[in-house]
Amino acid sequence: MHAIGFTDHLPIEDPASLRDVTISKPSAQGHDLLVQVQAVAVNPVDVSVRKTGHEHRMRPKILGWDATGIVTAVGEAVTLFQPGDHVFYAGSFRRPGCDSAYHLVDERLVGHAPATLTTAARAAMPLTSLTAYEALFEQLHIPFDPAKPNSEKCNQTILIINGAGGVGSIATQLAKLAGLTVISSASRPESIAWTQQHGADLVVNHHHDLVSEVHALGIKDVDYILGLSDLDSHWNEICTLIKPGGHIASITENRRPIDLKKLTKKRGTFAWEWMYSKSYYHTADMISQHDILETIADLLDRGLLQSTLSQTLRPINALNLRQAHQLIEQHHMIGKVVIEGWE
Amino acid sequence: MHAIGFTDHLPIEDPASLRDVTISKPSAQGHDLLVQVQAVAVNPVDVSVRKTGHEHRMRPKILGWDATGIVTAVGEAVTLFQPGDHVFYAGSFRRPGCDSAYHLVDERLVGHAPATLTTAARAAMPLTSLTAYEALFEQLHIPFDPAKPNSEKCNQTILIINGAGGVGSIATQLAKLAGLTVISSASRPESIAWTQQHGADLVVNHHHDLVSEVHALGIKDVDYILGLSDLDSHWNEICTLIKPGGHIASITENRRPIDLKKLTKKRGTFAWEWMYSKSYYHTADMISQHDILETIADLLDRGLLQSTLSQTLRPINALNLRQAHQLIEQHHMIGKVVIEGWE
């Protein structure tokens, strides 16, 4: 079957950085679904895995952690899906990615695709939705009842650093559904407009001093901060802006040591979010990713959440995948880029 | 009125390190209660404030953050208490401590004293109970319904590092009431026995490698870790022993940089606990300390929680306060030391 992969860590301008390859079609066992892939999205993690390292692989590594498609076969332990189901999912970091005609994924990581969305719009959602949902409602412990979204305005405020990116665009919408006031950071006119379209109440510029920017809004401190970019640069601002007893989460690692002691007096809480953690460690609550994706599909179908798709390329091949990687590498991506269909 | 204080940061062996002094009796205004102090406890924070620094003070600084006594007057905004009420509380870091015959404290930081306990047993409880309760149920987010304590055994495990100390002895009991399996660390025969008496299911030795100690119990990792001593030394053990998605809280600061990145893959959560934070910043939820102390008093009166009093000195004067400080400085303290009554 057709797949796209790499054997050497090369610059994206090199045609060999991502190549069309033929690999054998796998078969579903246990909790696995075999999914005929219809569309995939590209995320910063794809770029990071492709670029990072020096080794040569004998067999191509297949990237891709955002897919939508149709279940064509199921393992003997599967109970949540059946052949013919339309699904969407992000998958596991320990297994081949979804940039292939058919793909195996554990049913506990999969949701039924939102019926009202186009194929491309579906593919844009899983990884960022899982990350945003887990970050807000599991790691930051923001109270949220999916049965009563948008029901009431609470008195709390969140600062989302880089609110116009893939995760930020969903986090902004979800935080609004939970009743929070959302301050989103963005810098360019188009990213400011994008984050406002996705529900940001207030916008600050992360290229300026965030403390001054937030204070200029008449806001002294915030209950929650979600860091989606450059934790090192923003750490001091985060510690100044977080309320006593407030919660901080980050999806980006620090490279320099960060001074955690800045949070002692405020009894601050800091949490990492890594969407792959549950599948990586096969945790007891791994099936929560199924539940989250079902909730996300429901919110999308009810029009309470918007797909963050911003660009679609066709068809799924190495040329278009390289183009999508380039878009991500330029760090100016707004929303999500999806590649749809096979030749 | 009689009080005990210091003007210079001196070794505890120096008779001037804590001196009997006379200060003017304050009067209650606003949300303040004027409390006739009956007994006080001494905590590591008293020692730390007394020892740390070099400046000479013109007026004596009064320590003490654990008191029980009788309300003798109330400010005009007080609604929770009236003169004659028996109370217990830890108070604020921003105001004079409770080592004085009369003491002012904001009613929102105060609970009605548990009726069934002796005066000394009451004085032993507030600071450690507030710390343990906030750490477990606010910072570690352990589910707990005070109306249904001890109702069912859950499937979760907590490691309490230094379980036989003041906070550890309460945290062990509260974690048991929430249904957790408690692994407590202790090292000496008497501290091992003490922590078992307070409900520890399993005991490990924090002078050995905690990872090996916990694994030797047949336990691979734990859902929660509460660090009550030497975060620097135990950080790597904590990161190895915490479950993916697990929660860590600490009441002791790190002196060396700690490597937070060890928790990214596990999407770990880290929280500081500082009991004074709410009163220090006068947070909107400051009154939660009143609620917690009311809950603690109820659990004590129902026999579900035991006072951790281990030693009582009489009366409250500089000599006995110096002795209590010495006990804490020796780092072999089990439970709490209380000083009761005036000459």
From TrEMBL, chains A, B:
CDD domains: AL_MDR
Keyword Transferase: no
Keywords, ordered alphabetically: Acetylation, Cytoplasm, Metal-binding, NADP, Oxidoreductase, RNA-binding, Zinc
InterPro entries per UniProt: ADH-like_C, ADH-like_N, ADH_Zn_typ-1, ER, GroES-like_sf, NAD(P)-bd_dom_sf, Quin_OxRdtase/zeta-crystal_CS, Zinc-ADH_QOR/CCCR
SUPFAM superfamilies tied to this protein: GroES-like (SSF50129), NAD(P)-binding Rossmann-fold domains (SSF51735)
A GO cellular-component term linked to this record: cytoplasm
A GO term, aspect molecular function: RNA binding
Intracellular or extracellular location(s): Cytoplasm
Domain Enoyl reductase (ER): 16-339
Family that this chain belongs to: Belongs to the zinc-containing alcohol dehydrogenase family. Quinone oxidoreductase subfamily.
Quaternary state and interactors: Homotetramer.
Protein name: Zinc-type alcohol dehydrogenase-like protein
Source organism of the structure: Lactiplantibacillus plantarum (strain ATCC BAA-793 / NCIMB 8826 / WCFS1) (Lactobacillus plantarum)
Native organism taxonomy: Bacteria, Bacillati, Bacillota, Bacilli, Lactobacillales
